[in-house]
Amino acid sequence: MSRENKALSRRSFLRLAGLAVGGAVLAACAPQIIKETVVVEKQVEKEVTKVVKETVQVEKQVEVTKVVEKKVEVTKVVEKQGPKEVRIARCGWLESEMPFDLAIATYNNLPERKDDNVQIILDPAGKGATDPVLAQMMAAGEKIPWNAHACFTPFLDTMAGISLETIQPFDPFLETSHYGDAAKRVKADMIGSVKEDNSYQGKLITIPTNVDVVCFMYRKDYLESVGANPPATMDEVLAIAKDVQKKLEKDKVFGFAPTPAVTWRYPAALHQAYSPADKLFTQDGLLNILDEGWLAAMEITKKFIDAGTVPQGWETWGYPENWKQGKVAMALNQHSMGTWGGMIWGYDKLAMMPTPPGSSAIQKSGTMFWATSIPLFKAAPYPQETTDFLVWLVDPDNEMWNRGAFKAGKMVGLKTPYTKYIDPNDVTQNWALGVLPLLEAATPPPPTKWYITEHTKIVPKMVEFLKGTKSATQAMQEAWDDIQAEIAKDKK
Amino acid sequence: MTQAVEERSAFRTFIARVREARHEKWGDLTGYLFVAPLVLMWLVFGGYPYIRGILITLQDYRVYERPTWSFLNSYVGLQNFKELFQDKYILQGLKAAICLYLSWFPVSLVFSLGTAVLLNRVRTKWLASTYRVLMTLAWVIPVAAAYPMWQQIYEPNFGYLNYFLRDVIKITQNPPSWGSDALTYWISFGIAAIWKGYGYYMLLFLIGLYNIPKELYEAAELDGANGWQQFWHIELPGIRNIMLLFLVTNVGFLSEGTVQMMVFGQGPGLIGKTAALYAWEQAFTGAMRLGYGSAINLFLGIGNLILVTLVFKFFRSEKA
Prior knowledge:
The complex is a heterodimer.
Chain A: H1 3-6, H2 10-29, H3 32-58, H4 65-80, E1 84-89, H5 92-97, H6 100-108, H7 111-116, E2 118-123, H8 132-139, E3 146-149, H9 154-164, E4 167-168, H10 171-175, H11 180-189, H12 192-197, E5 199-200, E6 203-204, E7 206-219, H13 220-225, H14 234-247, E8 254-257, H15 267-270, H16 292-306, H17 320-324, E9 328-334, H18 335-345, E10 350-353, E11 369-377, H19 383-394, H20 399-407, H21 416-421, H22 431-441, H23 451-466, H24 472-491
Parallel strand pairs in A: 1-2, 1-3, 8-9
Antiparallel strand pairs in A: 4-11, 5-6, 7-9, 7-10, 7-11
Helix pairs in contact in A: 3-4, 23-24
Chain B: H1 2-26, H2 29-57, H3 71-74, H4 79-85, H5 88-120, H6 125-140, H7 143-154, H8 160-168, H9 185-210, H10 214-222, H11 227-238, H12 240-250, H13 258-264, H14 275-284, H15 290-319
Helix pairs in contact in B: 2-15, 4-15, 5-9, 5-14, 6-9, 7-9, 7-13, 9-12, 12-15, 14-15
């Protein structure tokens, strides 16, 4: 045979190359091998646990020595698997507001981590508990790499998580936690309203990392400039707003800033200045927007707008920038807005208190609050390790985390840190002592899946009323009908 | 014996003809092997979602309720489509989509084309490069950063724009609320959207203009054509394909607005809620009716397809 005959023609080469590529693609598509590997890994881990338990008996029984030898062998196999990567789906804003990175770095380097090989990882590619894709992955029996989700608002998300069957209670894992004492403290020390917000059917379904409470906030120096005391009623708020604005006209300071288009931060909270807790929600857990108190809250809001004491932009997001710039004398918003303002223009000028009652029937207003919590995924590969980390994180004894939360202007969901870490004379922290009673007395919103639907139907009608094109009753009746129409679709 | 040989020969000829015919019809089978991975990828990541998406429109698929995930359990025929024709929010959403489109498209077309024509006439190379970079800077800024930045500019009380109008040039003491006012909301969004996208479109047109042979300009100059005539008779026909690309990729406005409205805000009374955003809400909030949300999106997609077809037809008829 000549040398030329031995050489591959271009066509033959391409054919062979095509076959090779095709073969490689087919080989890469074979899933069975991976599944088998996973099973082996699980078996090894189980064996370790079993052996460790038996080792306790070794001191008394010489016969079991062989088992100890086996343990050594198995441990080597585990070491080859690398660290236990306990992945928690990341939440960008929470990570930027709370000292999560520092907490995780601290936890991963604790002495006991050398033994258990656990590494907590915040995974930016992680799925949330309300993500349908996660639910479908679980339903299909796929292996889930994530254990929890760091950005869960119980009152908005719990029903979704329950319906999608993506989350499970923490209770059994708290019982067996590596940090047993801390787990007991977490359960016992959780503020009642927060516990209720984070529970479902009596079981702790999420662990709160921080809490936001809607409250009335004002600039002490502005109110002092007109000789006003802290307002005792909403009518007084209106009167002071007019006075302050007149007095500080040159500085372009507005009297009062409502955010009627942001349901949880304003209308739902102001409602509590006019109605008692039993009138706030319907039996179905919906916002009781046809209640007289809700309508009265709308009417007073319109008075502020009509009086010109409100910054422009109330139809949408509202005034956060103006508050932080010190251009608003009084506001009703989540407490973090107050503290962020305090960080900019000085905590000594900040005061936060319950919303002044709007009705004589109300002695002390309640308020809205929401926890930012972490749920445990049903198919979590490391549920115990995840629970251990969360217990360690929010434990009242964790000074770094709790002090960090207060420094960030946030509230925590456990009671002891308020007495343990806050200096009553330090204005950068003592605001939390004023907000705490509000949180303790707050009514948790009942679990329902309709909050976002309510919000999207209420807001356009609210704006129409405040623009003067509809009465409060008509606007809310229309919103109510729209909400009911959506709910009716669900019942079909 | 001879007959048997002849029969074998005839059979071979027949087989050869069959192979030849098959080769003519199907080509070299090896080629299929080469395209197989791509076709496979498309079938998995392109074809399957299309088909599944269409099937979901025929279901009362609710994300919350696992039993409805099965096609047979929740098949409702064309019920979702019947419902969308009676849904008042669809019409409102389509109006919003039209407003959104008109707020940026016409100006963006004129502005980006005009800038490209001017830039094409810059003869100094480094200067042209500098302009190109400057013009495309806005395009490379992520949407999540760009629109909130515009919200800062539009902030009605102390935003840069109103500060400029009220305190610097002092033309009004009551400047508009921009994104919070129904009258100025779409203008506000339009300016931000034009700023964000025109650099890309300008670059697209510029590539087309750079591909026009210089001889055409020289011949036109010899014939005494002025700038406008050069634009009208050389440049505009020269970038015909780019123009087609621009129109085809942008004419499907019916399903626009999900990301933009989420980031920029839906305006006072949520007037910026487009039909696509409403479909998203139906699919992923409240009862999480993915079937209905998909039906709305399919409806919008078919509308877009008609618009794209019209654009193609227009350009073809012009060519004819």
